[in-house]
Each structure stands twice: as structure tokens, then as C-alpha cells.
Amino acid sequence: MATNRTFTMVKPDAVEKNNIGPILSMINQAGFKVIGMKYTRLTKEQAGAFYAVHSERPFYGELVDYMSSGPIVAAILEKENAVADFRKLIGATDPSQAEEGTIRKAYAESKAKNAVHGSDSDENAAIEGNFFFSMLERF
Ligand code: CMP
Prior knowledge:
Layout: E1 5-10, H1 12-16, H2 20-29, E2 33-40, H3 44-50, H4 60-67, E3 72-78, H5 82-90, H6 103-107, E4 116-118, H7 122-132
Antiparallel strand pairs: 1-3, 1-4, 2-3
The protein binds adenosine-3',5'-cyclic-monophosphate.
């Protein structure tokens, strides 16, 4: 059953380009409510653990280096059908394939530097939210 929650990160490229505000605005305008939010930076070890599911992929090293290269904004978001609707809002992993009106179309620069993360399932949304947030940090 859908949990109505998803997890997101505003990635280092978008933070560096001062796009936190515009991205959060698109998220709010799409009807997502913020349940938890923090501005933080992952160590290489933490980024490696977060993306462990991709450890066999050729881009894993690049992904870990990149995701630990600067601060990110992590958030748990709530909305009916959150996982699927959020993936629609962010658009394709490769920004050149992302539809008009999506966050990645507007703010991503490449497959690696793609502005935002969005959970791909309810199960991963819960795992990823738990990676960053305690129960005392959710409202
Ligand atoms: P994300 O939604 O955070 O989940 C996995 C990430 O791996 C993905 O976004 C991309 O940033 C990254 N990724 C996927 N495919 C590639 C690729 N071919 N080259 C570099 N990074 C990739």
C-alpha cells in the first residue's frame, strides 16, 4: 500500500547554483508537504552507503564523489501518491530526456548533476527517510 511519503535531496549542483528556493517552490506548488528537512553534507562513506544499491554500476564512484562534494538539502515529503507523483515532477534522470515543466528540465545539467533525487519506491522512500531523519525530526 502507498505510504504517501517520499524522500528527496536537492543535490550539490543545485545548491551551488542557488536553486534551493526555486526547487522547493516547485515542490510546494505541486502539493507536497514538508515532513522533515535538513541542510547537510554527506561524507564519502555516507554517500556510498546511501547509494549502496548502485555499487555495481559503472557510475558509482562518480556518484559517491559528486554527492559528497558539497552540501545538500534532504527532505521527507507527503502527498497522496507521493513516490509516483514526485518522480513525475522531477522528470527523467537524464535532463535531456526530461519533460517541459519538470524540475530536472529546469535545473539539471547532466545525468550525474541532475539537481534532485526522488525515491523510486515506497520501500526505498522509507529506507532513505530513515537514513537522514529520526522520529523527532518529522512533523
Ligand atoms: P538519483 O535519482 O539520485 O539516483 C541514482 C543516481 O545515479 C541518479 O539520480 C543519477 O544522479 C546517477 N546516475 C544514474 N545514471 C548515471 C550515469 N549514467 N552517469 C552518472 N550518474 C548517473
